[in-house]
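Async update (no meeting this week)

Hi team, since we skipped the sync, here's where things stand on the single-chain job. The sequence we agreed to prioritize is pasted below, unchanged from the tracker. I ran it this morning and attached the output directly underneath so nobody has to dig for it. Comments welcome in thread, and please keep replies under the output.
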Amino acid sequence: MPAEGTAMRITRVADWILYSTSHFDEQVAYLHDVLGMGIERQGPAVVDHHFQRYALFAQPGGVTLELVESSPEFADFQNVTIVCFTVDDLDTALGELAARKQAPISPVITDGSGWGWTYLRMPDGAIYQLQGSVAEQSGRAIRP
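Output:
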């Protein structure tokens, strides 16, 4: 249930986790070969230019671990774990956060199906991802 006075509704937390590493190939091999995690898909990052490469590992319960290699120009995205929060309406959520002086650290990235995501900071400086439906449908994504 949303907090009183807010229309933003978080529907899921941590069902998508981004794990950024500077040892991408070794981490993919470890997750696949040692831990036995199946690779759903992998390749170069096409839309979210915070990252160069990605590998998706779908897990039980609908959780996805996305191993990513950050782009050199995004130092804050190197060697961090980013938890995703899903909201009903990303535009509404960002409007409410802006009213509370919280601004995204990236533009909204869309997948062309009415879904988008952006990145923000927690009070301690940690990065998190906020995703949800968006009004504008443009671009292509590396993930739904």
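Quick observations from my side:
The chain has a mean pLDDT of 89.
The chain has two helices and eight strands.
Reply here if anything looks off.
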